[in-house]
Write a structure and sequence with these properties.
Blueprint lengths: L2 H9 L3 H19 L6 H20 L10 H20 L13 H11 L6 H12 L2 H12 L4 H8 L4 H23 L1
Helix pairs in contact: 1-3, 2-3, 2-4, 3-4, 4-5, 6-9, 7-9, 8-9
Length: 185
């Protein structure tokens, strides 16, 4: 069954398809989410909530033009939920070395960066992001794509204070704009 067929089945509310996705990715999701140091019971709840969000997003048409795999999309939802759960559970959870982009997050960024259905302006932004360093790309992705706040990025990336994150994000955005402008000349 193709990814398009799976999304179509999810849109129809097919529970067998949802169950298949659930079982197919559960073990790897738990392995992926262990970096948040949550109890298995909490991870189970998060995974189930992510599955519900996956089904709801499919039914709302949010996955119609999905630029990545269903697995990557599911892991992105779950990662954000796990991060929020860990953050809310303990304000002292993160240290500078706790949070680094992993293979799945780079796959998500790569799938966005390689998406063929982007508009002309989106492609310019993607081209600029490809030319940036990892740190800038991560900050801009966390802020604009994942929707994390400055405070969440500060905690996740181990920055000392939110002003440092703001100025880093501002420098990265300025750099991205300059790269795009240079391309248009």
């Amino acid at each position: 069954m193709s990814e398009g067929d799976v999304i179509f089945q999810l849109k129809k509310g097919d529970r067998d398809t949802l169950k298949k996705i659930y079982l197919e990715h559960k073990r790897e999701f738990f392995k992926f989410a262990n970096r948040f140091h949550l109890k298995d019971m909490d991870l189970e709840d998060i995974y189930q909530d992510a599955m519900i969000a996956l089904m709801e997003n499919a039914q709302k048409g949010k996955m119609d033009d999905l630029g990545c795999s269903i697995k990557t999309y599911l892991f992105s939802i779950g990662k954000y939920m796990a991060y929020n759960h860990a953050r809310n559970k303990s304000k002292t959870y993160h240290t500078k070395d706790d949070y680094v982009f992993d293979k799945h997050e780079y796959e998500t960024m790569d799938s966005i960066l390689e998406n063929e259905s982007l508009s002309f302006y989106q492609k310019k932004i993607v081209d600029g992001l490809k030319k940036m360093g990892n740190k800038c790309r991560e900050i801009l992705t966390l802020f604009y794509y994942s929707g994390l706040t400055i405070e969440e990025i500060m905690s996740a990336q181990g920055y000392e204070n939110k002003n440092t994150v703001k100025s880093q994000k501002s420098r990265c955005l300025k750099s991205l704009k300059e790269l795009i402008k240079k391309e248009n000349e």
